[in-house]
Every structure is written in structure tokens, then in C-alpha cells.
Amino acid sequence: MIYNPPNNTHPIENLLSRPWEESIPAYREKVASIEKLSRDVHEVNPDYLLFHPIINSHQLVGFLMAYAFSWLFGQGLFLFLVVTFNYLIIEKFEVLSLFPIGMLILFLIVLGFASYLVLKQLKNKKSYYNKIVFLKQTQQVAYYEHNRKQEPIFHLINYKDIVASVRRNKGVVFEALNLHVIDPKTNQTIQSINLEDMQLSPYDQWTFIRTYMERPADELPLDPRYAHACPTDISTSLLACPDIAQDKKGKGLTGLRHEVTIMGWLRACTVSFLDLAEGNIYQSSANPALHPEVQRRLMWDGKDNPYNVLPVTAARQAAFDNKNSKVKLKWYSGIAVNATWFIGSILYVMLVIA
């Protein structure tokens, strides 16, 4: 049996229209919403619409903290070696000298554990984030439920059984779209899917979903500058996925062809870890579109897509296959610049101590 209701329920607050029961409303922020939705859509074709996981500002702050912890761990390790060498070898040993050494050890354990978790995630690519598939032909919704201590659980539910609502987050001034499944016998929510995006109106997002599922292809507005076919799920290259992260942040990389540009390279040099972490999420998030039950329902042959989506270029396909030398040069050089800054800061600390 595919469907086992999880316990990730949320209260239904501002109830929106049910599928197929009311007319589809117009966009409230037409241009901004179309651009944002076109960037968020991972893949759109006659069979399914796939949304990437939303990377919000809180998660980006978490990435930045992980980067800072890793940086401080390296600096702390250097200080620990210098202090230990100074107290235990150069100067006469005293019991009091064990106190600063012990404090440094505790400091390194805390920061080192955070660095370890970051490296472990980049290597193992454990899935934590939702990709959501809307199957147009069979009128179903597929996604994976993520729990901390078990493998992602696949769910396939009927689109007509969904109730959409808008929830205002407590303590934060923004609204989020939730999709719910209600038990008709008890009238209680038995399942909720969260599509939280602080930069997008939930009303526009629900309108976009309904238009795709309920109307002809030519009624779905997509901006071709942003609506790329980007198969990050099956990419073997972590370096290709951060290029998509850059593109979605609107850094002047629309029409992305995986070529080295000045803006892209400078960003790789300054915030490469943030884009690498986000690319890791794109690459590692469990993709319901690849599940056998979804594959069995697909009918499109991959040709003559009626939606306004740019195809995968040869350069991009080479990047996803880890065979694009320009992409490798861009990211390796950006990471090298970060490493140079790190080593330079250690040398600076050595000069200060000397």
C-alpha cells in the first residue's frame, strides 16, 4: 500500500478553493509571481509539474553558520597546536596551563562536530527536503515524507482530495501555502504538505498549480528566461547543481548555459559554500518523479512539450554528467580562492602571535 498518512498535520487557517469546484482566480502579482514560479519549477511537461524544495532565509543563515563554524574550527585547531606546543614544550610545564588547553579542546569539539555534519551531508547526500510532483494525466500528487531516523516514505494522493489553505507563520510576517488531506469520516486533517516560500504569494502559487492541473497547457504562464529543464535529480556532478542555485537567485545568469561568466565566478569566490550547500539539497532531495509508481503513470514520450520551457543544452548535459571543463574550472578556482583566504588568515594569526 502506497499511502500511509503521516503525522505532519497543520491546522487549516485561511481556506482556499477546492480543486475543480470554483473558477481559477487571477494572479495578484502577475510579473513577480510568474518569474518566481518559473524559477521554482524544476520540470514541467504534459505529465507532471515538479517543484524544487524551497530554500528560505532561515536555511541560508544555517548554511552561513555552518561555513563560519568550519572556518573557526580551522583557526581554533591552529591556535590549539600553537598553545600546546608553547606550554608543554617551550615553556616549563605548569598545571594551570592545562586550563586554556582544555578550553580550546572543548571549543574544537563543538565547532568540529558542526564541520563534521556539514562534510557528512555533502558526502552522503541524505534527503531532508520535499520535492512535490503534480501528475496532470492521472490527477494525483506524489511526494516523499521525511523522518529523521528512517528512509523517506513515498506518498501518492488524489488531487481532488486536497484542500488548500494559507497559514500565517507565528512570529514571522509571511503567509505559506499548505495542502491538506481531510478524512471525510472525522473531518480531521490526516496529512499536510507545506510549500513554504517567503518570496511568493501563496494565492499565486495555488492558482499556478490549479491552472496546470485543470486547464490547457497554453493557459499556464511561464517566463522562458527562467523556466529551464534542469535535471539536477539525476546529476552526478555537485558542481553543476550550484549553477542552478545561482540562476534561481537572479544574479544575471538567466539563459544559463553552464559557461563561466564574471558574475558567476565572483559569486563562486565569495559565497561558494552557500551555493554548494543549496546545490547539495537539489541533488540529494528524494525525487518522487523517479519512483516506479510515478514512472508507471507517465505517458509523455519526451517530445513536443507544449509548455514554454527551455530544453537542456549540450553544455548543460555535459555539466550534469561531470564532463564540462568550464564548470569545473569555475568552481575549483572559486573554492581555491576561499582556501587562499583561509590560509592567509592563519598566516596573519601567526604574525600576530610572533
Mean pLDDT: 77
Can you give the helix content as a percent range? 40-55%
The largest sheet is: 5 strands, antiparallel
- Please report the number of helical segments: 10
Shape: elongated
> Rg from C-alpha positions?
24 Å
Strand content: 15-25%
Which sequence of strands runs across the widest sheet?
A: 2-3-4-5-6
Summary of the model, kept short:
By secondary structure, this protein is α+β, with helices and mostly antiparallel strands. 45% of the residues lie in helices and 16% in strands.
Strand and helix layout:
Elements: E1 14-15, H1 30-40, E2 41-44, E3 48-51, H2 57-90, H3 98-124, E4 132-135, E5 140-147, E6 150-158, E7 162-168, E8 175-183, E9 188-195, H4 202-214, H5 240-248, H6 262-270, H7 272-284, H8 292-297, H9 314-320, H10 325-353
Antiparallel strand pairs: 1-7, 2-3, 3-4, 4-5, 5-6, 7-8, 8-9
Model description:
- This protein has 354 residues and is of the alpha+beta class.
- The chain is built from ten helices and nine strands.
- It has helices spanning 30-40, 57-90, 98-124, 202-214, 240-248, 262-270, 272-284, 292-297, 314-320, 325-353; strands spanning 14-15, 41-44, 48-51, 132-135, 140-147, 150-158, 162-168, 175-183, 188-195.
- The longest helix has 34 residues, at 57-90.
- It is elongated and about 85 Å long.
Features:
single chain, 354 residues, alpha+beta, 5-stranded antiparallel β-sheet, 4-stranded antiparallel β-sheet, 9 strands, 16% strand
